[in-house]
Task: structure prediction
Amino acid sequence: MEFQITHKDGSTGARCGIIETARGNIETPVFMPVGTQGTVKALTPEDLTDAGAQIILSNTYHLYLRPGHETVKKLGGIHRFMNWDRPVLTDSGGYQVYSLAKLRKITEDGVTFQSHIDGSSHFLGPKESMAIQRALGSDIVMAFDECTPWPAEYRYVENSVRLTTRWAEICLNEELEKEQNLFGIVQGGMYSDLRERSAKELVKLDFPGYALGGLSVGEDRETRERVISETIRFLPEERPRYLMGVGKPEDILEAVILGVDMFDCVMPTRNARNGSLFIDGGRIVIKNAEYKEDNSPLDENCGCYTCRNYSRAYLRHLFMAEELLAYRLNTIHNIYYYIHFMERIKNAIKDNKILEFQTEFYRLRN
Result:
C-alpha cells in the first residue's frame, strides 16, 4: 500500500491524499460506510457505488460468529461474498468484544468472551484476529487491541496500552495475504502521556497506517479533540491516519482540520432507520407532522436518488407506515450526504478554503 499526500492546507493540519491498494485508489479524507455483517444495512453494493463510496468497513467479530470466516473464505472472500469489488477494511474485533460481549476475561494472550448471539464461549487474540481477517481477505486489516471504557483509572489504561503494543507486535509477525495491509491502533484513553506512549511504541513498529482507537466511548467533544490533537503529532505525516467510530459531521470536519484522513461510523445508517436525515442545516426528523403535506424534496441541493424522486411527505408516510422502503430511501440519502460532505471538504482543502468551509458549515447550523 502506498499513501501520497496531494495537498496540504497552509493554516491547519487538513490534507488530501491518495491511498493506493490492490483493489483501487482511495482519495482522502474519506468516510467508510459500515457494513458490519457484510452488508451496509438496507443498501446494495450498487447503491454504494452510485453514492460514490470508495471503501467500506466490515466487522471481524460479527463475521467470525456468523457465518464464520472459513465459510466466507470458501465462498471467495469478503469481496466476492458481498459482491463488492472496491477496497474493504476489517476492524480487529477488539471494540466489539469490549462493547457487545456478555462476559469477557482479558489475559496476556487475548480475550475469552461470550457471544452476544447465543452465549457460547469464544477466544479472540491477536493471532486469531489476524487469521480471521486473512480468511476474509480484506484490503486493510486492523491490529487487535484492547479498547478501554470511559472513564477508566490510569493504571487500567496503562496496562491496556501495554497489551495493545504487545498484541500489535504479535499481529505484525502473523502472515497475511500479500495485498493486505496492517494498521496499528493507538490507545491510551484520555490520558495525554499514555496516548503519547502508545503512539511512539506503535510508530517504532512501522505500520503502513495508524488508527486512533478508544474514542467516541462517552467522552465530551472537547476532550476528544484534545486527544486527537495531542496524538496526531506523534504519528508520521507520510502514513494515513484513521479515527475509528467518530461520525457526526461536525466531529469529522474538526478532525479533518486536525489532520485525520479516514473515518467510519454507523451513524448515517442507524439514524436513517430511525428517521433522522442529514442536511447541511442539521437533521430532519421525518416523522414530524410538519412534513405530512410537504411536497418538496428532502434536500433541494442533494443529488441522491431519494431527493431526486421523492417528497418529504412520501418519506414521512413510509416511515409512519413502517414500510421497508423507508429504511432504504433514508439510508441512500444519509450515505450520499456523508460521502459528498467529504467531497466538499476535499475541494475546500484543495482550494485552501477549509476554514471558510468550516465557518459556512456552522453558519447553516445556527
